[in-house]
Amino acid sequence: MSDKKKTVSSESAILSSVQNPRVKQWTELLSRKGRDKQGRFLIEGVHLVQEALRSVDLVPEVLVYASDKKQAIAGLLEDAATKGVECVPVTEAVLAKCTDTETPQPVFAVVPKLPWRGSDLLAASEPNGLVVVIDGIQDPGNLGTIIRSADAVGASGVLLGKGTVDLYNPKTVRSTMGSLFHLPIVQGDLTEWLPRAAESGVQVVATSLQGAVSCYEHDFRKSTWFVIGNEGQGVSEEVRQLARHQVLIPMKGRAESLNAAMAATVVLFEAMRQRGL
After folding, report:
1. Which of 126, 168, 212, 271 has its CA 20 to 30 A from that of 158?
2. What is the pTM (predicted TM-score) of this model?
């Protein structure tokens, strides 16, 4: 049975077998291979499902919930039904089989992957957009936090370069706290899209410890693509050569560096301050 949108009535039979074909299909989404194969991903928990239901572009295809928690999430189920989302009651065993958390949430949903393309980020950069560019971040929590920070400062979008942890990794998705539904996020080749951005008049700015100016002295008010690099190695040399501007975060204490997500957040909020947001 496919996951096409169709509302199931409250009398639907409870799906109880972990060997059910649909359960196997959902379980596949716990792996990157399965997500790539199906073009879908899982979101777990009431908050993330609520955010997805509010999304114009990414309404869930199916909502799966613990049958014994139906009353506790009645409002959520009503919202889903209003949007024509199929709602499937299951046992706790099925829920545990399909989810990534140690303590399963009472609900998860299957959502199509984000539809955005690099051209959407170029369009969003005009006239004074702010795009966050990720060059090889490996930790799901760091990526999720950077996406939340980008959302918080009103960034125009996020570009994920090759070698970056999977956006649809369950830990990454949870770390975004729903922000992945709030702004365009694109996966692409930085060696293709950074030059195209520069050609369109965007300033490409990267973090660096050499030949850089303070992030508090750089002008972020114009259209900007800001590159944050890998946790251990920073921005790759190949990508650094595509960034015309280099900035650093001045520090008075004895710490040698900041966590990648924290560094990105500092610079993004400085950009927001300069823009008067």
Report:
1. 212
2. 0.90
